[in-house]
Amino acid sequence: MDLPKGLAGVVISETKISSTKDAKLTYSGYPIQELKDASFEEVVYLLWHQETPTVEQVQDLRKLLVSEMKLPDETIRLIKEVAKEPQHPMSILRTTVSLLGTTHNEDGLDQPPVILAKMLTAIAAIIRLRDNQKLMEVHEDWGVVENFMYLFTGQRPSPEYVKMFSTVMVLHADHEFNASTFTARVVASTQADYYSCLTAAVCALKGPLHGGANEQVFKMLAEIRETGIKPIDYIEKQIAAGKKIMGFGHRIYKHGDPRAKILRGIAEKMAQTTNNSVYFDLEEQIANYMFEKTKLYPNVDYYTAVIYHCLGLDSSTFTTMFAACRTTGWMAHIIEQQTDGTLIRPSSEYVGEMHHYTGPIKAQDTASVTKKVVDFGATKS
Asked: Which of 4, 148, 155, 160 is deepest in the core (most CB within 10 A)?
């Protein structure tokens, strides 16, 4: 039996949240191209309620989110302890999400707006604490995106930058049943609490084939710049060595990721205003060559690498930014899955050999069995 690898093309459930049908990304029926200039709060409301909000509803949601963008002292203390150890920021975030579920969710009644607000602040705190910088406090009269940027950069962003980063957050807010979202839905199907579902999603997002790709993209750009190698020569060597060029290709978008097309303009603008055009120029050379060589287009991770760098972020924290944006979609899918009430439990096709049990292994066979175990360990290492 030929089974689709990685569930490619397999429809496992219905959703009203987002769609990539016909390689077109929509949020609750609205094309992403039409939502790129919507406020982050508008898109949060849309994904959670599957309808566009009124002006008053946007204002109320913005006020609620900002009012909750504060962490309990105990949570901050624990994050500081975790952040002392040399480890990847996504590992710190994974532990932090679990901590939020124990130090803040005492009555088990935390609601999505509260959780989203805490996630944004926790991610900003991780970024600041890793660099031994003081934590900032929110401004009640600012919007969510402006406050979030202030919390992780320590500086109030310009209105132009707020608008551009709001678009980045909107474009990353959801993407149908991607790996981390599906992981969250599997856990949600067991009726686990919100924080357990989010912790699982963060674990899935950490992988380089999912959220971690943008980090690898910038490492590639930095290596090319530091070594002085020509971009095309670098790519040719990588391809010849059988290595994957991160930031290119997508299982769904065979003719270009619609999000990448929008992000390209933001990356170019930010690179120009922060004296980082050298990185954007490298990306352009690589993108042109990759299309000529492989017919692959850049995906959503490709241009965010430069965008996040222009915001002063270390490449190791790029995936935490992805998590900050995607929490909106995660929460929408967790709610939908739990409302559906169906436990996700797929089947598998067994392809191993069949045997007949004849009793315990004889003493004289122990040595051969031990050797097989050792050999197995060797191949795995």
From this structure: 148
Measure the CA–CA gap between 287 and 280, rounded to whole angstroms: 10
Residue 169, burial from CB neighbour count under 10 angstroms (0-12, 13-18, 19+) = buried
Judge if pTM exceeds 0.70. Answer: yes
Catalytic annotation present for 88 = no
The predicted-structure confidence for 75-112, as pLDDT tens digits, reads as follows 899 888 888 778 899 999 999 999 898 875 555 556 89
* DSSP-assigned letter for residue 110: -
Task: Provide CB contacts within 8 A for 139, sequence distance 6+.
Answer: 66, 146, 147, 150
Is the pLDDT assigned to residue 337 strictly greater than 90? yes
Residue 38 has pLDDT above 60, yes or no: yes
Q: How far is CA 26 from CA 32, 43, 217, in A?
A: 5, 11, 26
Angle at 78 (CA atoms; ends 72, 81), nearest 5 degrees: 145
Residue 249 pLDDT > 90, yes or no? no
Catalytic pick among 110, 174, 257, 301 = 301
Alpha-carbon 351 to chain mean position? 33
Task: Clarify whether 250 is annotated catalytic.
Answer: yes
Tokens representing residue 257 in the block: 């990721």
pLDDT digits (tens, 9 = 90+) for 265-295: 999 999 999 999 999 999 999 999 999 999 9
Residue type, 194: Y
Q: How far apart are CA 341 and CA 188, in angstroms?
A: 9
Tokens for 39, please give them: 């406020």
In the predicted structure, residue 11 carries a pLDDT above the cut 80: no
Q: Crossing angle of helices 112-130/73-83, nearest 10°?
A: 40
Catalytic residue among 250, 257, 309, 333: 250
User: What is the token pair recorded at 62?
Assistant: 């913005």
